[in-house]
Amino acid sequence: MDTLPKISLAQNLLLRTAARRTDGRAIPPDTLRGGARVKVLTSLLQRGWIEPADGGHLLTAAGYAA
């Protein structure tokens, strides 16, 4: 049985919101600023759950699975 690594509430929110969008865009909320925003996006990029695209980020197949 595979278990997902623990993720923060912000990462969870970002993934769930992107999965609900028809275009799969991962758009951080306005309340997530500065270093916290960078840390969340970097973590998701490193795990392969989002990828850079058109000046933003898109959810990957692995991101949908997560």
Task: Describe it.
The chain is an alpha+beta fold. 45% of the residues lie in helices and 12% in strands. The chain contains three helices and two strands; from the N terminus they run ααββα. It has helices at residues 9-20, 34-46, 61-65, and strands at residues 50-53, 56-59. A two-stranded antiparallel sheet has the order 1-2. β1 (50-53) and β2 (56-59) form a beta hairpin. The mean pLDDT is 91.
Quick structural overview:
Strands 1-2 form a two-stranded antiparallel sheet. It contains 3 helices and 2 strands, in the order H-H-E-E-H. The chain has helices at residues 9-20, 34-46, 61-65; strands spanning 50-53, 56-59.
Key descriptive features of the protein:
66 residues; alpha+beta; 2 strands
